[in-house]
DNA sequence: GAAGAATTACTCGGATAGCCGGTGTCCGAGTCACCTGGG
DNA sequence: CCCAGGTGACTCGGACACCGGCTATCCGAGTAATTCTTC
């Protein structure tokens, strides 16, 4: 159960765009170069972020991607949902109703499967923590430990 | 990022074995039949549970699997770790150090990557919830809502 | 010199292969239970 | 009737194919900037 590589890339890209305080777009090529990532595949991930409403894409020459919301309004949960989807990792297939379960009265299945409930509860704790962390939070943490990051980002994307 | 099907199967199997209060082994064929699962593949998952120390296998005729610990001492975290492994879903590849990161001073990377920290914190919340739930807990919940489950399990595995 | 249209170059976007891990299956080694024969 | 040996059948365990999704790539549609021509 490994998470998609695209999640890590996406968070770092959003972080980079947050460091630029302007609204000028940044091309996929620039973003890929700044992290040494495959250009075309990164583009695919960015498209997912656009579909999820986290980024806005500007076509044409001098086009690229811009943040669609403020960094304070983008949570890690949003990013994970954009790349991995909104479905739960644990998918209950109701095997309790198969085999010997067929002999049980239907009333036994009125309540949700206890296994599914426990798994879902745990996963909700995970999502809760993800939803509590925003891109702005991470930017603040990184700034306090490595103040040069913002300057490097602006330089890498051709900002004066 | 979908969790292995084997996790659901394993929890239900452990639950079934918990309902039998004796130490007589149950064969893979019986377990598979009671949930309508593919025999050979279920056996593969059970082997993982044996390696993780959750089950004990008894070879030979009239052999099978028995719980290696009390249901109170088997957590959902143990089951997930046995099937999925103990590695974190989010794997930081330190892309912050690639590309433009190479121009940053080494001191900027003394602290752990803020993205990784946030992801790991969230995942720990998830694991914490999994570790807090035992097979005995789930059995108790199921018993309170569907008292016939234990009887059905004993019947399916040839108990008087 | 200014305006407008055609051209150009650059961008995103979706459609197209490759590869790894989960899914599913099979057969062999090993062990216990049972049966048989003898004492 | 009791016991020992051999046989048999059943079990787990690991080795072998199959498939879906993530990974990676390419090329085309579309747009903005640029350039050239004309007034």
Automatic annotation (TrEMBL), chains A, B:
GO terms for cellular component: cytosol. Gene3D superfamilies: Winged helix-like DNA-binding domain superfamily/Winged helix DNA-binding domain (1.10.10.10). SUPFAM superfamilies: Winged helix' DNA-binding domain (SSF46785). GO terms for molecular function: DNA-binding transcription factor activity. Pfam families: Rrf2. This is Rrf2 family transcriptional regulator.
């Amino acid at each position: 159960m490994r998470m998609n590589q695209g999640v890590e890339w996406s968070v770092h890209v959003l972080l980079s765009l947050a460091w630029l305080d302007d609204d000028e777009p940044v091309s996929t090529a620039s973003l890929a170069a700044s992290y040494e990532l495959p250009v075309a595949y990164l583009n695919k991930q960015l498209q997912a972020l656009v579909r999820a409403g986290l980024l806005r894409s500007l076509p044409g020459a001098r086009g690229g991607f811009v943040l669609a919301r403020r960094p304070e309004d983008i949570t890690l949960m949003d990013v994970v949902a954009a790349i991995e989807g909104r479905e739960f990792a644990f998918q209950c297939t109701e095997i309790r109703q198969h085999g010997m379960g067929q002999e049980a009265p239907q009333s036994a299945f009125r309540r949700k499967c206890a296994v599914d409930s426990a798994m879902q509860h745990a996963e909700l704790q995970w999502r809760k923590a993800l939803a509590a962390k925003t891109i702005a939070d991470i930017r603040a943490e990184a700034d306090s430990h490595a103040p040069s990051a913002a300057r490097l980002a602006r330089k890498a994307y051709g900002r004066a």
